TrEMBL record:
Gene3D superfamilies reported for this sequence: abc type-2 transporter like domain
UniProt protein name: ABC transporter ATP-binding protein
Keywords assigned by UniProt, alphabetized: ATP-binding, Cell membrane, Membrane, Nucleotide-binding, Transmembrane, Transmembrane helix, Transport
Source organism phylogeny: Bacteria, Bacillati, Bacillota, Bacilli, Bacillales
Protein's cellular compartments: Cell membrane
Organism: Bacillus coahuilensis p1.1.43
Any single GO CC term annotated in Swiss-Prot or TrEMBL for this entry: plasma membrane
Amino acid sequence: MRKLWSVCLFEIQRLVKKPQSYILMFAMPLLFTLIFGSLFGKQESVVKADILIVDEDQSELSHSMIHHLQQSSVFHTLEVASDTKGTLLIKEKEADGMLVIQKGFQQTIINGEDPTISFVYHPELVDTTAISNLLNDMVTSTQIKGIGSQKWSEITAQDWSVLFASLSIDENGLSESLIEKTTITKSEDSKNIQNMPARAAGFTIMFVMIVMISVTGTMLEAKQNGVWYRLMSTPISRVQLLGGYLLSFFLIGWIQFAVLMIATHLLFGVVWGDPLGLIVLVSAVLVCVVGLGLFIAGLSKTVEQQSSIGNIVIISTCMLGGVYWPLEIVPDFMKTLSEFVPQTWAMKGFEELIARGGGPFDIVLPVAVLLLFATLFLSIGLTRIKYE
């Protein structure tokens, strides 16, 4: 056991003596977390489209619909005098779209017919479906209230506008005031997961994997410069030698994970969740990553070859596994492929701990899958190691 720890501590000391190690282990993941966390932003940080409104009808119904459109949380509205001016503003990219309420809008509704409005927009506007659906709902709502008010007027002989005005009292505000929104989670500290915690977990995983590829390459380096064979000539068994290397890889990964979790909590306010769950999940991730590094080292003949293959594998699988961006935005075939990379299951485990406030029993499936990957990688990697 003493010899095993000697090999382990030697490898850890060798890594910490290199200044560039700190950049790769700590500075780069924090920088990537900041960039990508800010790039996607928080869920509340939604850029609203600027929609112009041209009211050619200038009627009570058109004014009412415009009033409700201005209360929308989907886009900003600004009235302009004519569609010619609005078209010019869209061409100059000073607005994203324009709604034209054509003359005769109110009379058409009073007559029980379907009104005609036009919606033009810039090709770069991405929320056209949501905006179109909202506009259709607004027109339908105005049409129902207008027709209902007219029928009421025919029966009571009173002015239809009286009932219409009563029906149009800030229905948006009324609806919101009657609805209480509550998010149910297992922890009060984790009600709303943001993009920043997800990216923090993702890039911590990625850079731990990159560092593991680097440190597992020391076995190949030791063989190339003869250190491996000199160690084998000493009174140390193969199990002790290999155990010392694997233990050093595992502890280096834990040191990196621990520092990054503390740093992201202090810098970005990331709440990582249940401590016991974190210990279980991070340990499973590290065993899997060490196994992957050993697997790639076993297939490589030189340190350079191992580094090249390892980086390609890590970057590509991290893209599939939801490290760079949420899996919700990728096509279905990529979601299917993502089930076959360990990063996906690591991210699912962190999502359970961070977003839902789960504990060790809530991450049984992700941990089991990660250990399955680890068993596969270690089994192949260990059989490829040559001691001679």
